[in-house]
């Protein structure tokens, strides 16, 4: 078969040339595969397999490899061909229902693990068709694997989600959680508020120099206080940062004096002290006068009593008694 060998060598399909020498593809025992007595035709044309570089190499040896083409080639079905499941395997692993079935339909390698993580945890566990019993759904918590089976229409996952919501379940970010785990998630979801504590502003070198200059004018270091009515706040206000009297106080305490008072404050304090002393003195005098008044009052009462007794002794009645006695 020189035509077939030449066709394989340059990687081009050589089927047509060989067709006359070999039986038709349908009759080839390699194309029709038997499994459990069932027959089907390989859905992929064989010349597409021959385009596969791996196959081309395997058969490049010569005409002897050609005869191997007649053997069954199951690997040929791994391309885009539909999967055929052995009935026995189907009994062992029944096809999943509902979301799992949908997920399996477009499953890529490694997708199952992700699928499990993203919480497709609602399954239709209704009794099989023809069997008696209520249609039910099963929910599995993605956190603690707790299960809950509840009545729900067959295959209605929207309804199942609604019912789960009423039961306290929640699906957040593709993760289904039972009421307990959802409560725990919410408790942990409270993000602690981080207060940005920025350092308090500090005076610039220029501002410090200005404070020093003004303090030199307004602070009396010998008296240890501001002259006249100046204060830290006044200095800060004059220098243009009225909200920062603390800057002035810091520099004043470091280089001038601890007392933030001034002459006016000292003068007023002295006046207040003098007035308080006078008040105390007057209060003392008042107390003495009160005592004196009470003593006078007592003396007056005593004198009034003795006057009454004298009058009784020298009054008109006593005179009359004396006149009677004389007569
Ligand atoms: Zn849970």
TrEMBL record:
Q: Region Disordered: what ranges?
A: 1-131
Entry keywords, A to Z: Coiled coil
Compositional bias of kind Gly residues = 59-71
What superkingdom does the record give? Bacteria
Coiled-coil region(s): 265-299
Which protein is depicted?
A: Uncharacterized protein
- Lineage, top ranks: Bacteria, Pseudomonadati, Pseudomonadota, Alphaproteobacteria, Rhodobacterales
């Amino acid at each position: 078969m020189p035509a077939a060998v030449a066709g394989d060598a340059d990687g081009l399909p050589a089927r047509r040339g060989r067709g006359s020498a070999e039986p038709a593809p349908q009759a080839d025992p390699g194309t029709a595969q038997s499994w459990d007595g069932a027959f089907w035709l390989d859905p992929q044309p064989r010349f597409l397999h021959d385009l596969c570089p791996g196959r081309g190499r395997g058969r490049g040896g010569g005409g002897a490899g050609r005869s191997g083409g007649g053997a069954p080639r199951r690997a040929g079905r791994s391309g885009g061909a539909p999967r055929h499941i052995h009935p026995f395997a189907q009994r062992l692993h029944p096809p999943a229902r509902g979301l799992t079935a949908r997920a399996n339909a477009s499953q890529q390698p490694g997708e199952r693990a992700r699928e499990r993580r993203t919480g497709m945890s609602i399954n239709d566990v209704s009794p099989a068709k023809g069997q008696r019993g209520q249609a039910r759904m099963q929910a599995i918590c993605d956190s603690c694997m707790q299960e809950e089976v509840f009545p729900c229409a067959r295959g209605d996952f929207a309804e199942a989600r609604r019912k789960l919501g009423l039961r306290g379940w929640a699906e957040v970010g593709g993760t289904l959680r039972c009421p307990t785990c959802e409560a725990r998630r919410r408790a942990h979801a409270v993000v602690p508020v981080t207060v940005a504590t920025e350092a308090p502003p500090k005076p610039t070198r220029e501002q410090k120099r200005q404070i020093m200059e003004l303090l030199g004018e307004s602070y009396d270091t010998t008296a240890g206080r501001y002259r006249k009515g100046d204060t830290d706040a006044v200095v800060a206000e004059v220098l243009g940062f009225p909200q920062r009297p603390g800057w002035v106080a810091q520099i004043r305490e470091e280089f001038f004096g601890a007392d933030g008072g001034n002459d006016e404050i000292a003068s007023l304090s002295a006046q207040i002290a003098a007035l308080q002393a006078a008040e105390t003195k007057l209060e003392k005098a008042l107390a003495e006068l009160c005592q004196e008044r009470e003593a006078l009052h007592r003396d007056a009462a005593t004198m009034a009593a003795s006057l009454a007794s004298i009058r009784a002794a020298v009054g008109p009645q006593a005179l009359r008694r004396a006149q009677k006695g004389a007569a």
